[in-house]
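Extended Data, panel c. Modelled sequence:
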Amino acid sequence: MWRGARNEGVWRVVTKLVIDTDPGVDDAFAIALAALSEDVELLGVTTVFGNVGLDNTTRNARRVLALCKRGDVPVAEGAARPLVHPHPHRARYVHGVDGLSGRSAALPEPERPVERGGAVRLLARLLEDSDDPVTIVPIGPLTNIATLLAARPDLHHKIARVVIMGGALLHGNTSAAAEFNIWSDPEAAQRVLGGGEVPCVLVPMDLTYRCAVDRAWLDALAASGPVGAALTALTPDYLAHYRKALGWDGMVLHDAVAVAEAISPGILRTEAVPVAVETSFGPARGATLVDQRRPELRADTEVPETGAPVSVAVDTDVDALRTFFAERLTLS
């Protein structure tokens, strides 16, 4: 999961990371967080449908990497649709028509062509080539990750953790029950979270909402340098949505919270509990069923638990997390 690196006489713990993403404004912040962190070896980025279509998510990911001067990071296109059923709609009402408030073209042009062979092939190659286990951070629908786990069981041992932004404990954002990433491909989410094949951390929107940033935080980031200014310039449509969702002038950096945990394990407090995903076509489709009962009570029931428990993020030092974001996004 980690290796040591010496920088100006100080040994750092370096996390090997791959991000699977559907940019998306908060995805852009999350990619930049990893790309600018000196204690991260960003091995690659894979893209998936979600907030907008695959062409846009791939273009956006490549442009954010170009903004961060990370043309060394390979990008591969993944799934354009869910594993089984058609995707009902995108999240343009949150992220704008191009995923970045209509401002994707303001970012630098990509420095590197898209990798041939697709996302699953790139993920497999990066795992095969790594001497150490790799952390995968899916911050969009889980279609690519479910496909990788099914196609390459021989590589499960090369995955340190899968740190997932998704799910909700109390209520959803796309429906009353479901959070967008899980709702977008519930079958894939059940395959990953219920399979028990690799260690999973689930970062639900209940926690990410508590970590929202306000206008003052964004203004400070915009004034910090060219990267901070470029990132905050992508937020108008996103801010307009979250003013309604939050009731105040701020926004939620959902995906960056998951990337923070991937970079700095333990920055979020987690509880290991069984998790299942509702895959029926009723009103609860895409809901994450997180069993937070005491283990003694769960043991008394006759319903067998499948797979390994999932580490669900339930708390953090919110001020410290916001500082973590600001310090790393203002390195430029």
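The longest strand covers residues 10-21. This feature is highlighted in the accompanying rendering.
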